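Q: Start with the shorter request: fold the first protein.
A: Done. Sequence, then structure:
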Amino acid sequence: MRSRHAAFPLFAVLSWGVMFPVLASALTRMDALNLTTVRYVLAAAVLVALLLAREGWTALRAGRRGAEVLLLGVVGFAGFNVLTNLALGHAAPQQIALFAATTPLVTQLVRWARDGVRPRPALLGLSLVALVGVGLVITRGRLDGLGQFGVGGLLMIGAVLAWAIYTHGAGRFPEYSPLRYTTLTAVAGTLAMLAASAVADLTRLQHAPAAADLVAVAPQLAYAVVVAAVLAVLAWNTGVRRLGAADAALFMNLVPVTTFAVQILRGYRPGAVELAGAALTIAALVAANLATRTRAATPAPATPVSAVTDRQAVVDPVAVLAR
């Protein structure tokens, strides 16, 4: 059962791994903020249409949780995507993708700070192992290469923190379907990006794209909207609902490995250290999946334990989605 649920975050992270080189090529024709805004205006329109067709007009109302939805949308969609695109202007895609692998660690720390749930030692340890593997992949065993990230690295630290907060937030909306949570937060983030883009264009901090620019990046936008923004985010939020934020976030370690594979297809030739790092990352993810599956199969104690309860572990996602 958990293997089937794992397909959702796996699809998402593979899609995002491909996204970094795709967006890097589009940034040669458009400013980062405008590119992100155009992408999510289109993606939000698709998501709203899907939500209306599936759940009706009432699903567009957040009610008393409107402020929380707005904050998560601004942080997750606007924060992560704008900072990532800005970072791609300062570093190579495979370097930027390395920071995505820190998401499992950051998500567990956010969960600890927000809910008081201490990270499970096994998951924390396997996250660190996977991160070491990713570091070998990207740096080819030369850790001094980490110092070359500069501004791009600082921007990605902010982006990863934003996505960790958004990922944790997804588990706090058990009454929402993954489609509803994704759509409402995407609309909130898009509105924030539209406002920021308008201000940046009017103050000439960036230049509004010409029609020729939009045509030139149409293939990249098609992938970034349909696959990376709509299908991947829906799959991600579904995976978070079914596996929990900490377990789903482990799959983020595959993002830089995927980006690295794309670069190989474009002509890059890896060394033995890089291949060893990829194998280490995949092995850590498999071990984490087996560990969480074993833990899920262990019967709960008959006597309640007076400790902080992980809500994501006790909510039945299938029952929630069937409401």
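Q: Next, the second protein, separately.
A: Sequence, then structure:
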Amino acid sequence: MTTQTHMRREVNEIPQVVSNFLSQSAGTLDAAAKRLREENPAVVVTVARGSSDHACSYLKYAIELTLGLPVASIGPSIASIYGKDLRLPSAAAIAISQSGKSPDIVGMAQSARRSGATAIAITNTAGSPLAEASDFTVDLHAGLEQSVAATKTFVTSVVAGLALVSRWSGDAELSRAIDALPESLAKAVACDWSELIGALDRHNALYVLGRGPGFAIANEAALKFKETCNIQAESYSAAEVMHGPVAIVTPGYPVLGLAARDAAEVSVADMAHKLAGQGALSFLTSDRPGAAKGLPFAATGHPITDPLSLIVSFYGFVEALSRHRGLNPDVPPALKKVTETV
């Protein structure tokens, strides 16, 4: 009998963790959204690294599409290494960190707040230095995450940001979709991508394609391929891949197209099919007909939340792929759970 990995258990927990978060963090989300409506910032800046930065990239698209506000990612080294404060008197700053301990993330959040921004922390450690550096702390309530590869904290970080955006914007349809996410994500956990496991035998490199919020998910998927499977995965926008990277897509080269049910689905699907027609080993999360092989997906019913279900299905697949390759996804070589950079 095979012992279940921490990663697999934590992936299975995602629907319940999201449900718990939505019920336990409503008050903080309401208060932060109220402040943002009162302050009416002209720009949003984000501060994060790793999977948390991919969550910020997802929120960039959600904020720009929902609120029409530009969102920029700030390199934490601006404060921690270069010692500079930015002029942010009409900004909101969102910092995401599971541990809330990395000195560079904390330092940049402190700098943003000092420079006049409304600082919001999204973290799984409510009493962390990042929480102390912020005006509002959104606690993920995700419980202990033992696998080095972040899964439930990544998903809940995105949900936290989306829940804030829905309250800030007053978007009732988005709010309903977020409330329905526990059920949608439970369906995503059950999606079977096992066909892809054997297809990647003898392959140690691939492309992951996405667009819009789905590009943020492609970034996260590529990181997890590296972390858990020692596969050199590179993520690209479905539009960007033709600007040079396509040159190494030789016959049999693997491509994973993460297409959501949004305005970018056609673009991602068409590129996956195009590359399959050129001989690539191409897989796609879409029903649009073509040469790429389809993977099952759990639609959420809203274009802003739909890409999130794809990463939940992916997490289950990549955990199984890691074990298939004789690796332990819980303890990737040379990595540790809490990374503290300056």
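Q: Describe the second briefly.
A: The longest helix spans residues 6-24. The two ends are 43 Å apart (CA to CA).
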